[in-house]
Amino acid sequence: MHRRLLAVLVCVAALLFGAPPAHARDTAHARDTAQARETAPDGIPPLTDDRGRVLTLRGWNVEDKSGRGEDALTAITERHFRDLRAHGFNFARLLVFWDDLEPRRGQYSEAYLRKIERVLGWAHKHRVQVLIDAHQDVFGPAFGHRGIPAWATRTDGLPFAPHPDDWFAEYFEPAVQRAFTHLYEDPDLRRAQERMWRVLAERFRDHPAVIGYDLINEPMGELRAGEDLPTAARRIEREQLTPMYNRLARAVRSVDPHTWLFVEPTPIVGEGVPTGLGRIHDRRVVYAPHFYNTAMEAGADYDPSAGWIEAYEAAVTRYPRAHRVPVVVGEWGPLNNALPHMGRFYRDALASLDRYGSGWAGYVWCYGGGYCALDAEGRFLTNKERTATPYAPAVAGTGPTAAWDPERAVYRLAYRARAGVTEVSLPPRPGGWRLAVKGLARTPDPGARPDRAATVRVYAVPGAHVEVTARPGGAG
Q1: pLDDT single digits (tens) 206-260
Q2: Three-state DSSP class for 103?
Q3: Half-sphere exposure of 62 (CA within 13 A, CB side)
Q4: Is the pTM of this model over 0.90?
Q5: What stretches of 271-341 show up as alpha helix (H) in DSSP?
Q6: CB-based contacts of 300: which residues, under 8 Å, 6+ apart?
């Protein structure tokens, strides 16, 4: 997660805005997933569960970057997951760190695995699905951050200077860039990364809370002499990240045949530059870009006329359309949510994310200021309440279309029913919600209490066209 990006990224984004928009646990589930891919109306297939239902994930990142060793993950409590569910969210991207899992080469921390297990237990208790994210910031502790262990950091003696006021700039320090090259290229470090993922996947492959593994957070690399940033990013993605993801996919599949694998481009792609990633040879892959704006990360207000969201959407949808994989945005959300145009930003951003994605995780579910979703008392910070809207966590049907009208607070879902139960999530709202169902369908849950979130179940005759509408309680 980057608070302030380099000026060069501003130039890249400005240039981009002028461009034109351009597991399967059994055989039945494999068939359902294949059918979803074939019938995706916009060329991007949806995420599906082991019953073939179309999934939507809505949630937030959950992290403890300061706790290490015995204190690792102690900043995360059951309250995080209880509050996520209480606001209607069903998804958490959980940051874990290789330097805590394997502090000494070949010695994996059983205590850390138990800590992860405890967090996953809270998530399962509160019906929150978890993406386990192998997180790194500026490579790892060798450079004062978290991620890849110091013993796996090789710099060839190149210099590193910290940038306390612009930590993302540290990615462009020669020592950090060389460390990424060694991680991607050195056979022993490749094997170590594969072993790390086998340890995680073997431990958590059957945990009911785990929906996927994010193989590495915001990977970066080394620029070559004369390369501009977009060219370098596409080369790194094509020549280093693609083979790395395929290696890690094979490692995970050696112990876990079914959990979804989430793969990220570089953060440069997250700014709206089309990715150079190639095909990941696995049938359960999710494309997981991040959604940050350079100027807004540096403290600027949202500028609707700049066309950033439109340019980002046009660029970021190319890869999933070409490779027929679902999209879940792993991080998004500006630092300063109270600026004059931020309400418009959330409206535009959420509408865009809904057009092409199977879900998202905002940054970050914590209690305080800055990026936190909530204040110390658990109230949404300004404009972040806009993320808590109705949605369908699971649709037992084909061709689902959903629309949320934030001005009228009306949600509509339509689909062609298949066998199974559709779920509609309704967040807390003064006066609650009224639900209307059309078609050969019924629901035992006619509405939601105003003081709590509700998951409404819809049962329909297979083949029926079903429409579900949720509107504020008391409305006609």
Answers
A1: 999 999 999 999 999 999 999 999 999 999 999 999 999 999 999 999 999 999 9
A2: coil
A3: 29
A4: yes
A5: 294-297, 308-316, 318-323
A6: none
